[in-house]
DNA sequence: CGATATTGGATGTTTACAGTTCCACTCTGG
DNA sequence: CCAGAGTGGAACTGTAAACATCCAATATCG
């Protein structure tokens, strides 16, 4: 990489700003730059020095969030083991970067407009998940009557919903993975052999 | 009702503005009033005559959307018949008001901040669905290991996702109800007796 | 310790949108 | 056909946020 080693101070400040932006915008996409500067515990001036234009910070925040998501998914090793077990690991991994997910996927216009503009070499966090789903379909674990893309969307949507519920206290953080996994695996209907 | 019969012109204009607001804001919550005036095919002046403040239009749009959603659900008669059949009717009904749903549920802050402020006698579109879910759980059709509130959130989330997919052409409008119903009923896994 | 980089407060400029006013035009109903 | 309601173009004000500049205080590192 040609990235010149910025002084440690610089890079730490930049990270603080970007992570603060993701965190604040995850909860309020209309938050202003002063709000973000405050959350990052830097002056408005400093923020503007690092990101002369709002658009630049938005792009950096999106890239940072996508990297975090992609990294979490990679750590879950979706290519290994039984597809259901892998899926549970992925859901648990997503929960650890829920802020990033709520930021990027909470505003369709971000994915529509900003991501394509961003670094074209960005890791697409979706791909390994799509691969996992295809593998699961091939092994007869996932429903192959549904398109892999649809299954992936449902995976994101149900996870996202669970993050929101945890956020507002309706769902215990501890139950998150199990609830999402159960819902994805069996839907919302009672199982055949279950007693009412 | 003490609602004095506004001239037909007035009420038609008002409806045009409110429905345009819902439609435009469903796709872009940051859309400006001029954009909405244009979509409604009225002048900016006229819009401001009807809604002197932006906030008023937002509230009217939310109320209009909630009424549409509540009406659609009511028409689906969720209290009658087999819970699964009722659920499918509800999903189909929601699809007919997808714009309203994407508007109200696409921005958490709307539900958090605006709805409570709105007419307190507003029909809560959720309630009949929660009732349906409870009924289904009692009859052993829906999973009673999951909370009714969670099931309802999943119902909304999966439907919402399907609307988005239809919007962007990834899912055929014709397949919407069947896909959502299948996903909700069986999750994303292959059925036991299915052949790979 | 001293040079340089980094920071942030104060202050100013610009832009875009919300909200306002005025008046001429055009429907519509009696 | 004419009176009044309804409409909308144009031009204006106020406000809030984005963006820019200056300089003094402070941190960092050779």
From TrEMBL, chains A, B:
One MF term in the entry's GO annotations: DNA-binding transcription factor activity
Keyword Glycoprotein in annotation: no
DNA-binding region range list: 32-51
InterPro entries registered for this protein in UniProt: Homeodomain-like_sf, HTH-type_TetR-like_transc_reg, HTH_TetR, Tet_transcr_reg_TetR-rel_C_sf
Keywords: DNA-binding, Transcription, Transcription regulation
Domain of life: Bacteria
Pfam families given in the database record: TetR_N
Every HTH tetR-type domain range: 11-69
Entry protein name: Transcriptional regulator, TetR family
Higher taxonomy: Bacteria, Bacillati, Actinomycetota, Actinomycetes, Kitasatosporales
């Amino acid at each position: 990489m040609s990235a010149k080693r910025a002084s440690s101070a610089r890079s730490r400040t930049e990270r603080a700003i970007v992570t603060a932006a993701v965190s604040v915008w995850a909860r309020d996409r209309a938050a202003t730059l002063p709000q973000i500067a405050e959350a990052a515990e830097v002056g408005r001036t400093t923020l503007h020095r690092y990101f002369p234009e709002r658009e630049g910070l938005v792009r950096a925040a999106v890239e940072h969030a996508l990297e975090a998501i992609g990294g979490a998914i990679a750590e879950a090793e979706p290519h290994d083991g039984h597809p259901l077990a892998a899926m549970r690991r992925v859901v648990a991994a997503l929960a650890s970067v829920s802020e990033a997910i709520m930021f990027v996927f909470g505003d369709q216009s971000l994915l529509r407009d900003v991501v394509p503009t961003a670094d074209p070499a960005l890791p697409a966090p979706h791909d390994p998940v799509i691969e996992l789903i295809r593998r699961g379909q091939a092994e007869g674990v996932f429903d192959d009557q549904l398109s892999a893309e649809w299954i992936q969307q449902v995976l994101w949507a149900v996870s996202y919903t669970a993050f929101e519920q945890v956020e507002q206290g309706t769902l215990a953080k501890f139950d998150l993975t199990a609830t999402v996994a159960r819902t994805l695996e069996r839907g919302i209907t009672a199982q055949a052999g279950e007693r009412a």
